[in-house]
């Protein structure tokens, strides 16, 4: 795992990288797992493989978030976006621990674990339940060029943002330089952006979004998140839904 401080990137412990579609018929997800990963981190491929397993679970929302702070190590990540680096750091600031590393799994926006350790990810999921995560039902339906997002009611004083996350369901990358030189890695549910599409005030509501937004940067599906906080300092994920084929 590699760790990155909030202000600078520092390489530490060996083995870790640190600095017409129809309505979704799957059960309500029990958790959201975001994997902050890098093609330039030798510890990440096992976590990327685990994410492929998570993606097969209908009760999990698994999203890969490729970061760019290891690009100087000899290989520029072909999927990375600095916005995901900012998102990861924002999580660390919101938690108060500022821990930023790869592979880092952030569960429901509130707990984190080494992304290649399924037991640690499960513990993070259990911890997230104590923070009120995943308590609001969210569903999606797409037709006639529009994605309709339906959000259920929550606490009377609840507020959260509604976010559309376009994803590429599968990306196969051959890495020719850096720590993973010679490896071919498969990435699943690769985020292409995180787009705010509405504000939820605790009452049941629907939000209509142009389907073209879900095709951002060659995305072929999407995830919807109901999340507290802001883009810069994301908080607990109250609900989520998966788009077609996820």
UniProtKB/TrEMBL annotation:
Signal peptide span: 1-25
Residue ranges of coiled coil: none
UniProt cross-references to Pfam families, sorted A to Z: DUF1223
Keyword Signal assigned: yes
Keyword Signal (UniProt): yes
Domain of life: Bacteria
Keywords: Signal
Name of the protein this chain belongs to: DUF1223 domain-containing protein
Taxonomy of the source species: Bacteria, Pseudomonadati, Pseudomonadota, Alphaproteobacteria, Hyphomicrobiales
């Amino acid at each position: 795992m590699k760790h990155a401080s909030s202000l600078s990137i520092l390489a530490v412990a060996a083995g870790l990288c640190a600095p017409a579609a129809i309505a979704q018929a799957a059960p309500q997800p029990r958790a959201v797992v975001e994997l902050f990963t890098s093609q330039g981190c030798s510890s990440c491929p096992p976590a990327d493989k685990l994410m492929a397993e998570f993606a097969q679970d209908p009760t999990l929302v698994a999203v890969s978030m490729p970061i760019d702070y290891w690009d100087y190590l000899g290989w520029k990540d072909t999927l990375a976006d600095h916005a995901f680096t900012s998102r990861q750091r924002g999580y660390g600031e919101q938690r108060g621990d500022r821990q930023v590393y790869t592979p880092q799994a952030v569960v429901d926006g509130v707990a984190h674990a080494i992304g290649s350790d399924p037991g640690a990810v499960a513990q993070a999921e259990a911890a997230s339940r104590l923070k009120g995560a995943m308590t609001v039902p969210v569903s999606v339906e797409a037709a006639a060029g529009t994605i309709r997002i339906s959000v259920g009611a929550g606490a009377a004083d609840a507020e959260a943002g509604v976010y559309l996350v376009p994803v590429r369901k599968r990306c196969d990358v051959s890495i020719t330089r850096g720590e993973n030189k010679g490896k071919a890695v498969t990435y699943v549910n690769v985020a292409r952006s995180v787009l705010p599409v509405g504000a939820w005030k605790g009452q049941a509501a629907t939000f209509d979004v142009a389907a073209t937004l879900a095709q951002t940067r060659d995305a072929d599906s999407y995830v919807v998140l109901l999340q507290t906080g802001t883009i810069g300092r994301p908080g607990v994920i109250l609900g989520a839904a998966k788009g077609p084929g996820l």
